[in-house]
Write a structure and sequence with these properties.
CATH superfamily of the largest domain: Phosphoenolpyruvate-binding domains
Shape: globular
Radius of gyration: 20 Å
Number of helices: 13
Order of helices and strands: HEHEHHEHEHEHHEHEHEHHH
CATH architecture of the largest domain: Alpha-Beta Barrel
Largest sheet: 8 strands, parallel, barrel
Number of domains: 2
Structural class: alpha/beta
CATH topology of the largest domain: TIM Barrel
Distance between the termini: 30 Å
Strand content: 5-15%
Length: about 280
C-alpha cells in the first residue's frame, strides 16, 4: 500500500472522497480514487444513527477501519481516518488505528466532547496542549509512513492569525500535514499555505463555512489534499428517502428500476463470481 507521503510526491493534489462503509469504499476505488477518507461523522451517523458529538468510541472507529482497510480489493488504497480529539489517550489511539489498517489519522485541537468543525459553539484546547498531543501521536506510531495530521479548529473561534500560529506550532511538533478546518475564503487558504512548510488539507464539506472551491482551484492555491467527507453519504440518504417514499406511495419499485444498481453491477463490484467458484471448489 502506498503511503500518503508517496502519493503526495506523485500528485500535485490528492482528492480523497469520504466513505462510510466497506461497500462505499469499493465503489470509490472502482471509480479510480487513490485514497479514501473515513470521517467520525460518517461512522456516528451511518453506523449508529447518532450525531457527531463524541458519542462513538475508539473501538467503534477501529472496527469500521478494519472492515474497510482489510478488503482485499483495497489493499493498495490508503485510508485516512478521523481520530477526533484522540479519544483521551493519543498513544493508544495511534497504535490501535495503525494496527486496524489506517494509513494515517487526523487529530483536532478541540476540547472533548467535540463538535462538527463547521458548527458554532466550538472550544479549543491551548496550542501547547495540542503540541504535546501531536508529539505523543508521532512517538506512538511504529511505521514512519503512518501520517499524523493536525487539524486546526480555531479559525472560527480565535481568528485566522491564531489558526496560522497554531499550524506553525503543530508542524514543529512533528505533524506531517495540517488540516485547516472551516476557512472562509480562497485568500485564507492561500495565506495558510504560504505560512507553513508541510502540506495543507482542505475540507470541502457541504453547507458549512467554507465556500465551494473546486479541486482545480485548490491546486492553484497550493493545497495538497482535499477531502469530501459526506458528499456521497448525503446523496445516498436523499436517494434512500425518495425510494422509501415511492414504495410507500406506489407499492412497487418498477418506476425507479432504471435508477437502481443492478444485481450484475453489484456482483462485479463484490467479485461475486470468483468467490462463488472458490467456495464451490471446497
Amino acid at each position: 500500500m502506498k503511503s500518503f507521503h508517496q502519493l503526495l510526491k506523485e500528485n500535485k493534489i490528492l482528492v480523497i472522497p469520504g466513505v462510510f462503509n466497506a461497500a462505499s469504499a469499493l465503489v470509490a476505488k472502482q471509480v479510480g480514487f487513490l485514497a479514501l477518507y473515513l470521517s467520525g461523522s460518517g461512522i456516528a451517523t451511518g453506523c449508529f444513527g447518532v450525531p457527531d458529538l463524541g458519542i462513538t468510541t475508539l473501538d467503534d472507529v477501529c472496527e469500521e477501519t478494519k472492515r474497510i482497510a482489510n478488503i482485499e480489493a483495497l489493499d493498495v488504497t490508503p485510508l485516512l481516518v478521523d481520530a477526533d480529539t484522540g479519544f483521551g489517550d493519543v498513544t493508544l489511539t495511534v497504535q490501535k488505528l495503525e494496527s486496524a489498517g489506517a494509513a494515517g489519522i487526523h487529530i483536532e485541537d478541540q476540547i472533548f466532547p467535540k463538535r462538527c468543525g463547521h458548527r458554532p459553539g466550538k472550544e479549543v484546547i491551548s496550542a501547547d496542549e495540542m503540541f504535546e498531543r501531536i508529539q505523543s501521536a508521532v512517538k506512538a506510531r511504529s511505521n514512519p509512513d503512518f501520517s499524523i495530521i493536525a487539524r486546526v479548529d480555531s479559525r472560527s473561534v480565535n481568528g485566522l492569525e491564531d489558526a496560522i500560529d497554531r499550524a506553525k506550532k503543530y508542524q514543529d511538533a512533528g505533524a506531517d500535514a495540517i488540516f485547516a478546518e472551516a476557512l472562509e475564503s480562497k485568500d485564507e487558504y492561500k495565506r495558510f499555505v504560504n505560512a507553513i512548510k508541510v502540506p495543507v488539507l482542505a475540507n470541502m464539506t457541504e453547507f458549512g463555512k467554507t465556500p465551494y472551491i473546486s479541486v482545480y482551484e485548490f491546486e492553484t492555491l497550493g493545497v495538497r489534499m482535499v477531502i469530501f467527507p459526506l458528499t456521497a453519504f448525503r446523496r445516498m440518504m436523499k436517494s434512500a428517502e425518495e425510494v422509501y417514499r415511492i414504495i410507500k406511495k406506489e407499492g412497487t419499485q418498477k418506476s425507479i428500476l432504471n435508477h437502481l444498481q443492478t444485481r450484475e453491477e453489484l456482483y462485479k463490484l463484490l467479485n461475486y463470481y470468483e468467490l462463488e467458484k472458490a467456495i464451490d471448489k471446497k
